[in-house]
């Protein structure tokens, strides 16, 4: 039986009689969530088959994604002109999660051609053609190309130029600037480490002092902030945890405090995750925070194999899937933050990635609804399809 329909098990937020702006916003969100769960309950009663509900609207999501990849976007997207490799990655990764291999194959050459136009002589990828190189868009471009899983795509990545760019962004304290003259925060370190590991250009000099800088970003709560002395945040915490694991240094942080913080970001009633303390649930944290838990789980399983089973993760996987399937799907395709919000490619990507995390443990799968809801496994450290990471590792190992 679906967890969200067992009303006696669900507890709504208790404001202890102290009404505030945030408590009122939480109450409104819970009311909209309850309406979504009521719709599912009625659907089950009508169909008489609780194994078919809720459904992943796969075909509608595919139509939305393919149109975004192949047709000019609406003028309202002009604010994302410096994020075009991100749009490419969000869409290609979403298609890969939904197993739309034919659509990726058909459009692969155009994706490669476009991303090649975003490269610069100083190395790395810019936010679009003739834009300055940026670590975030370099990460997005590399992930998109790896997602395509073709030799043409991987051959288009100039690894020497990317390493040159990463070294130029590296600071003496181990941190990384996002671009020439740009800000320094934990995203830069993660993007640099992820790209370097994925395409096989990492070495000891590139990340000297970086573990120490990352560790300085852990807060008293247990999560990580954007930089030292900043508030703990789900996205930055993912960046820190993934980066530390890729550098084999997770054991140097306070893992117990980290786990306590992340686990408590999954809201009991909604089933989804919130990005910070005293904040509302948001579909994108289905990846940013849920992915932290398999990463830490695998680390602990390697350290304490007899104590850490790998048939389930350290969060309520069923609850997260129910939140995604019941509350985060736009009826015309695309996925959203929460009921009442508009669809976009960012949330479509990270909500689907969270669905994959929630379905796929190391030794078992948990699929809410029918098997038609199943999506492909992703690599939690890179947020790229698992098979694509393997293909890239093999390619760069033999073409170094």
Describe this structure in words.
By secondary structure, the chain is mostly helical. The chain is 50% helix and 1% strand. The protein has helices at 21-47, 58-70, 84-97, 101-117, 135-148, 151-155, 159-169, 186-199, 210-215, 234-246, 255-263, 285-288, 292-303, 317-327, 345-359, 386-398, and strands spanning 378-379, 384-385. Strands 1-2 form a two-stranded antiparallel sheet. A hairpin with a 4-residue loop joins strand 1 (378-379) and strand 2. Helix 3 (84-97) packs parallel to helix 15. The N and C termini lie far apart (51 Å).
Per-chain topology:
Elements: H1 21-47, H2 58-70, H3 84-97, H4 101-117, H5 135-148, H6 151-155, H7 159-169, H8 186-199, H9 210-215, H10 234-246, H11 255-263, H12 285-288, H13 292-303, H14 317-327, H15 345-359, E1 378-379, E2 384-385, H16 386-398
Antiparallel strand pairs: 1-2
Helix pairs in contact: 2-3, 3-4, 3-5, 3-15, 4-5, 5-8, 8-10, 10-13, 14-15
Compact summary:
With 400 residues, this protein is mostly helical. It has helices at 21-47, 58-70, 84-97, 101-117, 135-148, 151-155, 159-169, 186-199, 210-215, 234-246, 255-263, 285-288, 292-303, 317-327, 345-359, 386-398, and strands at 378-379, 384-385.
């Amino acid at each position: 039986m679906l967890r969200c329909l067992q009303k006696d098990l669900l507890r709504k937020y208790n404001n202890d009689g102290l009404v505030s702006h945030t408590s009122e916003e939480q109450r409104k969100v819970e009311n909209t969530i309850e309406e979504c769960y009521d719709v599912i309950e009625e659907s089950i009663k009508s169909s008489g088959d609780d194994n078919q509900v809720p459904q992943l609207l796969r075909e509608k999501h595919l139509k939305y994604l393919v149109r975004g990849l192949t047709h000019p976007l609406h003028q309202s997207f002009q604010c994302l002109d410096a994020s075009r490799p991100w749009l490419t990655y969000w869409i290609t990764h979403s298609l890969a999660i939904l197993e739309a291999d034919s659509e990726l194959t058909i459009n692969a050459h155009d994706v490669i051609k476009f991303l090649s136009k975003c490269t610069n002589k100083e190395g790395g990828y810019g936010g679009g053609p003739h834009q300055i190189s940026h670590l975030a868009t370099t990460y997005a471009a590399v992930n998109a190309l790896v997602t395509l899983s073709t030799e043409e795509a991987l051959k288009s990545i100039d690894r020497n130029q990317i390493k040159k760019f990463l070294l130029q962004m590296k600071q003496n304290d181990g941190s990384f600037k996002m671009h020439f003259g740009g800000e320094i925060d934990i995203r830069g370190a993660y993007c640099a480490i992820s790209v370097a590991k994925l395409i096989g250009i990492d070495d000891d000099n590139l990340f000297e002092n970086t573990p120490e800088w990352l560790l300085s970003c852990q807060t008293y709560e247990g999560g990580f902030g954007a930089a030292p002395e900043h508030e703990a945040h789900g996205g930055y915490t993912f960046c820190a945890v993934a980066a530390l694991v890729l550098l084999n240094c997770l054991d140097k942080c306070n893992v117990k405090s980290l786990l306590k913080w992340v686990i408590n970001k999954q809201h009991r009633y909604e089933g989804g995750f919130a990005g910070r303390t005293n904040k509302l649930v948001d579909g994108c944290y289905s990846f940013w925070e849920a992915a932290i838990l398999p990463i830490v789980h695998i680390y602990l399983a390697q350290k304490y194999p007899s104590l850490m089973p790998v048939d389930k993760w350290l969060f309520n996987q069923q609850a997260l899937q129910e939140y995604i399937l019941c509350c985060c799907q736009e009826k015309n395709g695309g996925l959203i933050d929460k009921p009442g919000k508009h669809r976009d490619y960012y949330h479509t990507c990270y909500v689907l990635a969270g669905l994959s995390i929630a379905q796929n443990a190391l030794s078992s799968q948990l699929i809410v609804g029918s098997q038609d809801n199943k999506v492909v496994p992703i690599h939690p450290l890179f947020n790229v399809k698992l098979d694509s990471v393997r293909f890239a590792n093999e390619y760069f190992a033999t073409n170094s």
